[in-house]
Design goal:
The complex is a heterodimer. By secondary structure, chain A is mostly beta strands. Chain A is built from no helices and eleven strands. In chain A, strands 2, 4, 5, 6, 9, 10 and 11 form a seven-stranded mixed sheet that branches. In chain B, β4 and β5 (45-51) form a beta hairpin. The chains are: A mainly beta, B mainly beta.
Chain lengths: 113, 110
């Protein structure tokens, strides 16, 4: 899976608690992404990073923050989890800014009760 | 922003038949269109992609066609096999990211 590790793979948490998901890559790719996947909605972009400390919002960024202090790690934080954030979260990496595919990790299944 | 529509949402074919999945996009500036296959419990995997300066691309049983004027592109799978059963996503480039269609669940029955 293109040297991408997501952790944890599964998590159950309670409403109102903070949650951090981690994406680690060994490919030294500049671009990293967080998507969420929900039935009927496909894959929707949450945030992405185009370099260390450089991030930008996607279409569904409300309630999420990200950080990237090293090339290989991209963290997604839910400051106060809500049931609407129950989803499968995918990290992806990309070598260039255009004309190239994203490579996805195997996802983190998050359940907020 | 970019809007990608994908049809059909479900598709059932018999083994050996062809399958076609169609997508439309809204941003005329989009120039890169990948297709992904997702199996249960895994992340999407790239199966084929096409750039806007090409009208068609083929890789064994899989082909993609692009009509930039009409802003639509299609995935064609010939001689389908049971292992082709999966969810397929089209995508269109938007800035530094990809916008995805909502997916097509393909079932190939023996």
């Amino acid at each position: 899976d293109a040297g991408i590790t997501q952790s944890p793979r599964h998590k159950v948490t309670e409403t109102g608690t903070p949650v951090t998901l981690r994406c680690h890559q060994t490919e030294n790719h500049r671009y990293m992404y967080w998507y969420r996947q929900d039935p009927g909605h496909g894959l929707r972009l949450i945030h992405y990073s185009y370099g260390v400390k450089d991030t930008d919002k996607g279409e569904v960024s409300d309630g999420y923050s990200v950080s990237r202090s090293k090339t290989e790690d991209f963290l997604l934080t839910l400051e106060s989890a809500t049931s609407s954030q129950t989803s499968v979260y995918f990290c992806a990496i990309r070598n260039t800014g255009g004309y190239s595919p994203l490579h996805f990790g195997n996802g983190t299944r998050l359940t907020v009760t | 922003g970019e809007n990608v529509e994908q049809h059909p949402s479900t598709l059932s074919v018999q083994e050996g038949d062809s399958a076609v999945i169609k997508c439309t996009y809204s941003d005329s500036a989009s120039n890169y269109f990948p297709w992904y296959k997702q199996e249960l419990g895994k992340g999407p995997q790239l199966i084929i992609d096409i750039r806007s300066n090409v009208g068609e691309k083929k890789d064994q049983r899989i082909a993609v066609t692009l009509n930039k004027t009409a802003k639509h592109f299609s995935l064609h799978i010939t001689e389908t096999q049971p292992e082709d059963s999966a969810v397929y996503f089209c995508a269109a480039e938007s800035g530094y990211a990809l916008n995805f269609g909502k997916g097509t669940s393909l079932l190939v029955t023996p």
